[in-house]
Amino acid sequence: QVQLVQSGPEVKKPGASVKVSCKASGYTFTRFAISWVRQAPGQGLEWLGWITAYNGNTNYAQKFQDRFTMTTDTSTSTAYMELRRLESDDTAVYYCARGLGGRVMWGQGTMVTVSS
Amino acid sequence: DIQMTQSPSSLSASVGDRVTITCQASQDITNYLNWYQQKPGIAPKLLIYDASNLETGVHSRFSGSGSGTHFSLTVSSLQPEDIGTYFCQQYDNSWTFGQGTKVEIK
Q1: Which residues in A16-25 are b (16+ Cβ under 10 Å) and which e?
Q2: How many CA atoms are closer than 13 Å to the CA of A75, on its beta-carbon side?
Q3: Residues of chain A neighbouring B99 (CB-CB closer than 8 A)
Q4: How confident is the model at residue A42 (pLDDT cuts 50, 70, 90)?
């Protein structure tokens, strides 16, 4: 069955970078885009951007354009997101999701904690 | 950016009640709208896609309607397992989410 399995929790200091992976299985990886969303503790959902897996085209939310990068590795069906210059406000669960809309499928989430 | 205004922010209802949550988009999004249920510590679960299509495996007491700028999610007979937070999501232009509706049992 279709699965998105994300990497484990991370604890980072302010100013550091974090890279989260999202490994896809059960479907042809290049047929769908991967979107990234985050949710701060007790808060709502915030879209970060998406990347089309077959050609690497990206669409970033303007708020994150200067310190957020999405990539894919089609050989391992894995998507990655990297967030740089971390601040305490970046503490959140980061989700990957398959698709640009409609029947979106979500990964289990990765907790990223930014603390000095 | 498209803004999604969801209401109410919370509701408390009895088992068996009919419950409706609404989302209003700041511009026409045709039917590019999803509804999700989320429980603490778990990823959102898709209930309704394309405004009115029931996701496979989701109980038929959930239904979605609307198009353009006004949308609603209805639970025809609230059950104890329906407690959680519900979000709408537009995908006409990038993604934006409603603020969420926390549903509790009275």
Answers
A1: eebebbbbbe
A2: 0
A3: 44
A4: very high
A32 — pLDDT class (breaks 50, 70, 90): very high
Q: Which residues in chain A touch residue B94, judged by CB atoms under 8 angstroms apart?
A: 47, 59, 61
Exposure class string for B23-41: b at 16+ Cβ within 10 A, else e: bbbeeebebbbbbbbbeee
Q: What is the mean pLDDT of residues B48-60?
A: 98
d(CA A89, CA B42): 21
Contacts of A16 (CB under 8 A, 6+ apart): A86, A114
DSSP 8-state assignment for residue A31 = G
Tell which wins on pLDDT, A101 or B51: B51
Size of interface A-B (CB pairs under 8 A): 46
Is the distance from CB of A20 to CB of A10 less than 8 angstroms? yes
Task: Say if A111 is an interface residue toward chain B (CB within 8 Å).
Answer: no
| pLDDT for the residue B53 | 98
Structure tokens at B83: 């407690």
B58 within 8 A of B47, measured Cβ to Cβ: yes
Task: Estimate the share of chain B in helix, then strand, then coil, as percent rounded to the nearest 5.
Answer: 5, 50, 45
Across the interface, do B43 and A108 touch by the CB < 8 Å criterion?
yes
DSSP code, position A116: -
Beta bridge partners of A78: A23, A73
- Can you give the pLDDT at residue B58? 98
